[in-house]
Amino acid sequence: MGNNVLSFGEILWDILPAGTILGGAPFNFACRVDSLGDRSLFVSRLGTDDAGGKAFAAAKEMGIDTSLIQWDDDHPTGTVKVSFDGQGKPDYVIVPGVAYDFIEPAKKLVNAAGETDLFCFGTLAQRSKTTRETLYRLLEIASRATKLLDINLRKDCYSIETIESSIRAADILKLNDEEALEIDEMLGIGSNGLPDFCNKMLETWRIGICLVTLGEKGVFAVSIEEGPVYVPGCRVAVEDTIGSGDAFTAGFVHSFLKGETLGAACEFGNMLGSIVATQKGASRPIEPDRIAGFKIQERIIEHDLEKFRIR
Length: 311
Description:
Layout: E1 4-8, E2 12-16, E3 19-23, H1 25-35, E4 39-47, H2 50-61, E5 69-72, E6 78-84, E7 90-94, H3 107-115, E8 118-121, H4 129-141, E9 146-150, H5 160-169, E10 172-176, H6 177-186, H7 194-205, E11 209-213, E12 219-223, E13 227-231, E14 233-234, H8 244-257, H9 262-276, H10 288-292, E15 299-300
Parallel strand pairs: 1-4, 1-8, 2-6, 4-5, 8-9, 9-10, 10-11
Antiparallel strand pairs: 2-3, 6-7, 11-12, 12-13, 14-15
Helix pairs in contact: 1-8, 3-4, 8-9
């Protein structure tokens, strides 16, 4: 078994036009981490309802270590209604006041935080005071871990205060190009392009790496140690894009923890995200031979990284 990778936050049912699939960014990430050979420490909370029982059983069947999932008698299991635009991009309606909004700092969670090599967290689960306070207690305990913030801006699920405190706690910031525009405006950064945005995030917030995924056009990243890297996208037949960003993060983390270069980590994350985009749902298994046999047929190159602008 490889490194201990803790992911904290939501587990929920994605209610799609074609059916219901278990998801949530931290859960999707945990599934991919396990499939790559690292040890996933997944922290969340389920309701003691039928949806919670089915989610727990599905997670176990996928091979997820469920020992850090809590149970809640008073709040339902999380759900989100998902719809798609003409380009296959999802839109979310996320139900509030659910079990993962009430994650408690149980002893098992505290022990796991102290053992983790990388701690991945987002902003959605911080919409509630209980879960937010638990998260920051665990982040403080995880003193030896690299902290990765996958910002995941969702409507009515974040504030400028949670964004700022999250970035302060992070060593690595990962976000997509639309979120980068929003953060640039929210924090008054005033960037002149994507490289400028990443550099200012590193300088102002003292993070070590800034990763910006660009959808089908790949990923741009800057690290203090290695400088800027751009990895073009891979042309694939897109089924839906749910979970492709989480797969990128898992692939990046797997390579990063092995000590590979920033470019190699971005390349592997990009490949894994591309594979996930070719299938329905965020947590469907990917066979190892599909990863090993993946061939890049065509690159999609972003030529205008400097044209990143505030809306």
